[in-house]
From TrEMBL:
<keyword id="KW-0732">Signal</keyword>
<dbReference type="Pfam" id="PF13416">
    <property type="entry name" value="SBP_bac_8"/>
</dbReference>
<feature type="signal peptide">
    <location>
        <begin position="1"/>
        <end position="27"/>
    </location>
</feature>
<dbReference type="InterPro" id="IPR006311">
    <property type="entry name" value="TAT_signal"/>
</dbReference>
<protein>
    <recommendedName>
        <fullName>ABC transporter ATP-binding protein</fullName>
    </recommendedName>
</protein>
<keyword id="KW-0574">Periplasm</keyword>
<dbReference type="GO" id="GO:0042597">
    <property type="term" value="C:periplasmic space"/>
</dbReference>
<dbReference type="InterPro" id="IPR050490">
    <property type="entry name" value="Bact_solute-bd_prot1"/>
</dbReference>
<dbReference type="InterPro" id="IPR006059">
    <property type="entry name" value="SBP"/>
</dbReference>
<comment type="similarity">
    <text>Belongs to the bacterial solute-binding protein 1 family.</text>
</comment>
Amino acid sequence: MTTRRRTVLQGALALLGAAALAPAARAQSDGVRAIFWGGQARAERTFAVFDLFQKKFGTAPVASEFMGFNDYWTKVATQTAGGNAPDLIQMDYRYIVEYAQRGALTPLDDYLGKTLDLGDFDADQIEAGRVDGKLYGVSMGAGGFCLQVNAGAFERAGLPVPGPTTTYADLAGMVGDFNAANAGMRMLPDGSGNEPALENWLRQRGKALYTPEGELAFDTADAAEWFTLWAELRAKEACVTAEEQAIATGTIDTSMLVTGRAASGFTGVNELIAYQALVKDTLAVANMPLAMAGGKGGQYRKPTMMWTLAGTSEVKDEAVELINFFVRDLEAASLLGLERGIPSSAASRDHIVGGLTDLERQTLDFFANLGELLGPIPPPPPAAAGEISLSLLGTLSQEIGFGAKSPEDAAAQLVSGAKDILARAG
């Protein structure tokens, strides 16, 4: 009997339905429950590893569900608040401080060297999972953000495919040729409300989103310049319209790149595999556009996602065994490939490298080719950083796009609103 939830849950009705189904999943299985975000390609790889774990150890089936990134956090917050969180929660670097400090996660330190073996893990990936000195997250792979590009669209226009030194100004200068050759498509999505794009742009300028103490690290002038950059790109028809961008709901299939409205997208490097499965043209990964010629790259390596253990889990030992299996078993590594990033375990990396496809090698080579564009990882964002990213920044971006606010007014509201959110959370 299977307890797996293989339906992508989207929207308010789906979330309500999923909340009703969650207790049934526990009742049908004495095993581990897990939840993760991602598309179908990630889901199938994940299910295969869960099945392999069950086969090798004779455990009960792993009951699991997946959905798009934005809906995911609503679902996890609802389940956590209701005391019904799955045992394993796929965690983002942006949220780990918030969930750890509210007591929603179990520290994993007591399992190290026993059930959980991170002996050959990259040190930076281990440290990224620590909050206040305790280990809460186990990296499933190292990655970062990129501009994923529809190479075919640029080639049809006789234009060079964006590379590591391409600037925002370079892209703006290609608009005429690009649009003439690609009717109904723009070069860029509207990235003004995309937190990774904003963070990268700030880091290129020697700034950051947050200080190590968890305070806001940019000011109104920075925010106004960012919003103005995108207002100008919008006016030049280098990026999609506000109406088009509003269609994107945080899932791969609604992204501007997959729907064909834009020839690029700000994504995780590891997501190339999932996007290519849905796009006919050949895709490529490029560095985030530079703020200025010869500028810093703003890039850093971070866990693409981490497994964390819910504080309410009643099967903690088995759940940690599954985490360890997921990141250390060599057969599991072969099944997962690089879809969740470059494995943090040296043994897993060595095991899969010979069987990588050309597409997967792009992911592996991306960071190796960044050179000086790659910098240190910032501290984990403070609690409530997710609210700033998904609610405040996104809303203000849309209001500028629809003409309801000027870049300057939105910038002032972003800074004041972010400070208010951080103060409430602190």
